[in-house]
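haha ok so turns out i had the wrong file open the whole time. this is the CORRECT one, sorry everyone. sequence first:
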Amino acid sequence: MCPSAACLKINIFPAGQLGGEVKMIQAVRTGTQDLVITGGGPVENTAKEFSVYSFPYLFKDLDQANSVMQGPVGQEMLDLLSKHRLLGLGFISPIERNIFTNGKRITNADDMKGLKIRVIQGQGFVKTYEALGAQPTPMAYAELYTALQNGAVDAAENSPDVFVQDKFIEVSKTYTMARVMYMPALMLMSPSRFERLSPEQQQVIREAAAAAIASADSHYKKGYADSMKIIKDRGVEIIEPDIESFRQIGGSVHAGLLESLPDTKPWYEKIVAQTK
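then structure:
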């Protein structure tokens, strides 16, 4: 029995039991689901401002991305979610997106030409890989393992921990540290559900979220390091490419993305000002 009126019991439904991320975000907005932890990509469907995080090479590295998201700009972006009927409890550690293939070695941007790559279907992802000369290929994530296995696609992109966790290590031969994007992860709550809690319970929620976020950076970095060791031990070739060739082409798509995604402009300017 709970010793305090402020106690809460949280039921966890992992591995997509409540549906895909877009579906869960909508459920949180309508109040039929209380909480969701999601990547930034699906949030773009609701809050166009968050498309700024799919701009390639917006950040120098993981620490810089995390610093922005945990700082004033990140808090402002969390605050704007209220107009989309979402309560942003915080950013979790961003996720580094690298490229893995079922055969072809990617050592510089030129090697991307003609590569059929499965990407998230956000404008930033699609335009980036088009600019690199690849063929962004729409595909459900659940179909990706088999597609890599049978050659329906040549490549995909994700973080080292996901690469290992979702067993893409079994059907891939190379893992290229292109560091194209740092996708945020967010903890979101239904505002209507939050407002029904007592002030004490609301405080518990915020404190628990803050504690989780405080440990997320070190947790992600440990998972990252452990996964890189597994990738190496399993014989997948880890490639450090000519990163500048990627940065030059990636940076060239920013102007077009700002034009097609006008809601991102003020946030892009704030992030650039903070990362100079």
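The chain has twelve helices and seven strands.
again sry for the mixup
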